[in-house]
Design brief:
Largest sheet of chain B: 2 strands, antiparallel
Radius of gyration of chain B: 23 Å
Largest sheet of chain A: none
CATH architecture of chain A: Orthogonal Bundle
Number of helices of chain A: 3
Distance between the termini of chain A: 53 Å
Order of helices and strands of chain B: HHHHEHHHHHHE
Strand order of the largest sheet of chain B: 1-2
Shape of chain B: globular
Structural class of chain B: mainly alpha
Oligomer: heterodimer
Number of helices of chain B: 10
Distance between the termini of chain B: 36 Å
Chain lengths: 115, 244
Amino acid sequence: MTVIAYGVAGWLLLIGVYGIVRSHDAIHAVVCLSVAQSGSYVLLVAVGYQRGAVPPVFGTSVPPTTPVVDPIVQALTLTDVVVSATVTALLLALAVQIARRHGETDPDQLSALKG
Amino acid sequence: MSRRSRLAVFLVGAAGVAALYLLAVLHAPAFGTTTHPMRDAAVRAALAHATANVVSTVNYDARALDTLGEETLLLASVVGAAALLRPTARERETRGAHEPVHVLEPVQLAGYLMLPITLLIGADVVLHGQLTPGGGFQGGVVLGTGIHLVYLTGRYRALENVRPLRVFVAGEAVGTAVFAATGLAALAGAGFLANVLPTGTFGTMLSGGTVPLLNAAVGVEVASGVIVLLAGFLDQLHRTEAAA
């Protein structure tokens, strides 16, 4: 299980960056970046995991003495998701702008600067 | 740089990252262990302020300052995207040019049926952030995207009627301002963004002190931000470049 959890996190990062390197399309590259960033979600949640523990939300069926998984890495994951969403939105807006100006979304074809 | 040399650079870099990552993982604490000192501290902090959802304690109480930064980041991104997506001088609006679009009746029915349900769920997720999984960010996204079910019914104008953009542009700013103002008000008590309100009874709606208030502020900001962002992208469909 250790191998799967940490392995998936590293794999997502590398395969996402590989996708960006091989990309022929700006929007495809943005999606690849989201995939690469997903690796950090898996890594964070894996770091805070405890076998047999429940989610860190107490209530009538979960008394405060119950072992829970680490809430701090979960809060960090939430921040991570928000950062990913905002970066994706900005990059997609840039992709739209490039397509409007150059009629082209392949980054390799965008060699010349245009005012 | 040619594609082949770019791939070569990637392979060298990826091998380095993979090696360092492997080293880090090999020396990290075992997976699934019972030793989580930060977890224990966070749980103590949550119970001290009668907040059932420990993740909310971290986000809106102990580290509320970080969440203010996160909110500002979201605001900056929405402003940036809106600036990039605004119509250029050569473009003109072609509202209604694509309408009416044929939409299957079951899809329309589902859109109208799901709209109130989705909005209720979104509000529920925001308001119970201190008690159950969820909170301002999660519920805000449900609210902001849920309203676009009206767009599923095929009428862009109907969507424009239910989401007057000016209101949500203001909502984005108001949400951030309420968050910062709550923090400033706490300066009179213990310090910036300190949890100064009475924390109430554990497990009830009004527990957690400032946590529900900050959750609501974030919910308003995120929902407004998502709506303004999506409006920027959807408006692209309704523009054409005027003939030069």
